[in-house]
C-alpha cells in the first residue's frame, strides 16, 4: 500500500498482532491512517493533524486491554492421599463413646474423668483435651456434631489428605480446649466435638483463602470463593453455637486454632508428606484418643 501521509506521523507497532489491533482502534475512532512495510515490519502513517488523537487512541486502547488475554491459571497440584473412610472413622469414634458411656453424666466417674475440666487440665490432666471432644450431652447434641464432623471432615481430608487432615482436626480440638482452660475461668467444664467441627471449618477456610490467592494472586478472588466455608460456619454457629449449653468460647478457639494450623500447611502445600506419612498420621490420630481414654480410665 502506498504511503499517503509522508509528511505525517509514523507509528511502528511491535508486531503484526499489534498492527491489527491499533488500526482497528484508529478505525473505530474514525481516524485516517495508511500502512506500509519497512524492512519486513508494518508501519502506520497518520496525518500530522491527527497525530495526537491517534497516539491518544492507541494509548487508551492499551490501557483498557492491559492484562488481556488473562494468563492461564494452573491450579496447584495437591498430591494428597485421600480415602472417604477417614472422616467416617472420626464420626464412628464419637458414636462409639456415646454407645459405651451414654449422655454425659457428672455422676459417672469415667465421664467426669473425660470432660474438659479447666482446673484439672491446668493441673496436668492433658488427656481431657482429647476425651472431652468425644463426650456429648444427649442424642441431639451427638447427631448434630456427627453430621457436621462428617461433612467438614471430608472437606479437610480432601484438601490435606486423610492422615494429615485427621491429625490437624485432632490438634484443633486440643488447642481449642487448651486455650479455653488457659484464658477463661478455671471452673469451666466442656464437652462435645463441636470444637473440632469449628476447627475443621477454620482449616478449610484458611485453605480456601491461601489456595485461591496462590492461584489467582488477587484478594478479590479470595473473597469470591471463601464466602462458602464462612457461610457454612455461620450455619453451624446458628445451629450449635448459641444454645444455653453451647460453649461459644471453645467454638471460637477451635476456629482460631484451625486458621492458625492451616496457614503454613496451606501455603507450603502437602508435597513434603508421602503416602507413608499420611498413614502414620492417621494411625497417630487413632491412637491418641485411645491413649487419652486409657488415662481417663486409670484415673477414674
Compile the SSE list and pairings.
Elements: E1 9-11, H1 16-28, E2 34-38, E3 41-46, H2 51-64, H3 85-101, H4 109-114, E4 116-117, H5 118-122, H6 128-131, H7 139-160, H8 162-183, E5 189-190, H9 194-216, H10 219-240, H11 248-268, H12 275-299
Antiparallel strand pairs: 1-3, 2-3, 4-5
Give the class from helix and strand content and strand pairing: mainly alpha
Global Rg:
31 Å
Number of helices: 12
What is the average per-residue confidence, as pLDDT, rounded to a whole number? 83
CATH architecture of the largest domain: Up-down Bundle
**Parts with pLDDT < 50 across at least 5 consecutive residues:** none
Number of domains: 2
Provide the CATH topology of the largest domain.
Rhomboid-like fold
Sheet with the most strands, sense and barrel status: 3 strands, antiparallel
How many angstroms does the end-to-end distance come to? 98 Å
Quaternary arrangement of the chains shown?
A: single chain
Strands, total number: 5
Task: Explain this structure.
- With 300 residues, the protein is mainly alpha-helical.
- The chain has two domains: 56 residues, 2-Layer Sandwich (Alpha-Beta Plaits); 215 residues, Rhomboid-like fold.
- It has twelve helices and five strands.
- The protein has a three-stranded antiparallel sheet with strand order 1-3-2, with helices on one face. Strands 4-5 form a two-stranded antiparallel ribbon.
- Strand 2 and strand 3 form a beta hairpin.
- It is rod-shaped.
Describe this protein with a few key phrases:
5 strands; 2 domains; Alpha-Beta Plaits; rod-shaped; 65% helix; 300 residues; three-stranded antiparallel beta sheet; Rhomboid-like fold; two-stranded antiparallel ribbon; mainly alpha; 12 helices
